[in-house]
Write a structure and sequence with these properties.
The chain is α+β, with helices and mostly antiparallel strands. The protein has helices spanning about 1-25, 35-75, 85-100, 115-125, 125-140, 165-180, 210-225; strands at about 105-115, 150-155, 155-160, 185, 190-195, 195-200, 230-235. The protein is about 55% helix and about 15% strand. A hairpin with a 2-residue loop joins strand 2 (about 150-155) and strand 3 (about 155-160). Helix 1 packs antiparallel against helix 2 (about 35-75). The longest helix is centred in the N-terminal third of the chain and has 40 residues, at about 35-75.
Length: about 250
Amino acid sequence: MRETTSRMIFVAVSAWLSLCLLLVGWMPEMDYSFRPIWMVSGLIGLASSVGLSQLIKKDIGIQEKLITQYRRAAMTDSLTGLANRQALDNALREAVHEFIPNRNPLSLILIDIDFFKKFNDKWGHQAGDAALKTVSRTAAAFFSGIGCVARFGGEEFAIAVPSVSLKEASKLAEEFRKFVGMTECEFMEQKLKLTVSVGVAELRTKENSDDLIRRADEALYAAKRNGRNCIQVSEPTLPEVTDSVATNLSLT
């Protein structure tokens, strides 16, 4: 940035000097024999200044593009292309500021691929990567326009859904759980089945984003303890969705 500023100052000074040369060339007191030299020098200087300014603008545009790409890379999970944990944390903090109880709710859905370690042990880490990509694509498509989908870490994914109540988020989570169960993960001409466990929580008054994540995570682990391939909400007042049955990951 400092180098770019110095270059712009140099161009500005050069342009100012070139204008001075042109003005001197037009002065009637100037010797006629020297007038063309001053005017040509001024014109060349102005043309050079304009050319340099265009080059500097082009360089600035390239720098800004690179900075944007670096920032995007810093906020994106390289394997799945989803937002990463840092991007999720930023989105949650912003959403918490907009939170208004009973008017503008905020819910969080945490998703964990069932028996992911067994999946890796059975088929290898490349198959595990294929499973992560399958779930990430499914989540990105399913929650498009609804919330921020991020890779939470490992085989876990998170969806921040602003303006969505706990009841609505629970319905979305259950629909997504069923959708994943009908989606096949293709790997080396194999069509593998996946299931997910889901935890859902809604932000409460005086809570922050860390509190919301903690309760959603507790709900997720409750779903895993209940046999997996089901959802669990953090609120005891809202009954758990129980129309699913716990099933093991198909490894055959």
